[in-house]
TrEMBL record:
It comes from Paractinoplanes rhizophilus. The keyword Oxidoreductase applies. Keywords: Monooxygenase, Oxidoreductase. Residues 13-279 form the Luciferase-like domain. PANTHER family: BLR5498 PROTEIN, LUCIFERASE-LIKE MONOOXYGENASE. Coiled coil: none annotated. This is LLM class flavin-dependent oxidoreductase. GO terms for molecular function: oxidoreductase activity. Pfam families: Bac_luciferase. Gene3D superfamilies: Luciferase-like domain.
């Protein structure tokens, strides 16, 4: 099991002060032994408490301000020309020393319209074609036939790719065409576990990754942790609730907060995830409206009392999974 930090950067306030606060938080996370920082993106018509568009721009800035591995959770493919994405991801992989993991999701059809791109063809075929183009672009040497010369990524073969999605085809795509599966914040545990099982069934004996993002508030007292979550996570959780976006294995579901509680409760949740085949969890400790001291206390408690039970800090990079023991 590997533990990282998922970042919430609101489009409702200036970006630079948010990023500066984030870097301070990541410095704390580094000291505790967290291994990675993850940025999502969204393309809304109105400002939202999370995320910003263009996650790669934010990650490129962070590459010069943290030694943590970097990941996207997730980029929305409908917002990108595939070849431009190949170019920018290769550059970012160089900037962060080969420590980039590219989490990819399709995004809603209106995303393409909002960024001025033509609507793609059938979703599954377009996704598969993009994955193949990325791999080919990162693996090919210089060619006079290439429309744009793609700089070689720092890591041979390019960044690790994780694929998100709530249907069985997404888990199969993650297992056969990518390096791993990514479960979104709004996936209930039963959906996450179902997709993990489908991924590993297709993956077989090959090494792989099943990652997820979870809201996280930790306190020594369970009731206090839940009260803090109810007070400070509302803006972020309400975004999903208002859209009916909480998803279970059988369809719409209710809000779940399995990473809110005491250190022992968080440890028990991670134990359950590991037994289900989850290998990486990113903690959203500072959504919009969360006081810095609450986020710091969560990081400190997880860093001191949970992370040492699970986290192997000897693994050289985010994409190389290791056997978890206790």
């Amino acid at each position: 099991m590997r533990l990282g930090v998922a970042l919430d950067l609101s489009s409702q306030e200036p970006v630079r002060p948010q990023v500066d606060r984030t870097v301070t938080m990541l410095t704390r996370a580094e000291r505790h032994g967290f291994d990675s920082a993850w940025v999502g993106e969204s393309y809304h018509a109105a400002a939202q408490p999370f995320h910003l568009p263009s996650a790669l721009v934010v990650l490129a800035h962070l590459a010069g301000r943290t030694s943590l591995a970097l990941g996207s959770a997730v980029l929305l493919l409908r917002a990108y020309s595939p070849r431009k994405l190949a170019y920018e991801a290769a550059l970012l992989d160089q900037l962060c020393g080969g420590k980039l993991t590219l989490g990819l999701g399709l995004g809603r059809p209106e995303v393409a319209r909002r960024v001025g791109l033509p609507a793609p063809g059938p979703a599954g075929a377009a996704f598969d074609a993009t994955l193949k183009l990325l791999r080919d672009a990162w693996s090919a040497g210089p060619s006079a036939d290439a429309p744009v010369a793609i700089p070689p990524p720092a890591r041979r073969g390019g960044p690790r790719i994780l694929v998100g999605g709530k249907v069985a085809a997404s888990a199969r795509r993650a297992a056969t065409l990518a390096d791993g599966f990514y479960g979104a914040t709004n996936y209930g545990d039963d959906l996450l576990i179902k997709q993990a099982a489908a991924y590993w069934s297709c993956r077989g004996e090959r090494p792989g990754t099943v990652a997820t993002t979870r809201f996280c508030v930790v306190h020594e007292d369970a009731a206090t942790a839940r009260e803090l979550a109810a007070r400070h996570l509302t803006a972020a959780t309400g975004y999903y609730t208002a859209r009916g976006s909480w998803l279970g294995a059988d369809g719409p579901a209710e809000l779940e907060l399995p990473m809110v509680g005491t250190p022992d409760e968080i440890d028990a949740t991670i134990d359950r995830y590991v037994r289900a085949g989850v290998t990486s969890v990113q903690l959203r400790v500072a959504p919009a409206g969360t006081p810095p001291e609450v986020a710091r206390h969560t990081l400190d408690l997880v860093g001191r009392h949970v992370l040492p039970n699970w986290h192997d800090t000897t693994a050289p990079d985010l994409g190389q999974e290791v056997e978890t023991t206790r």
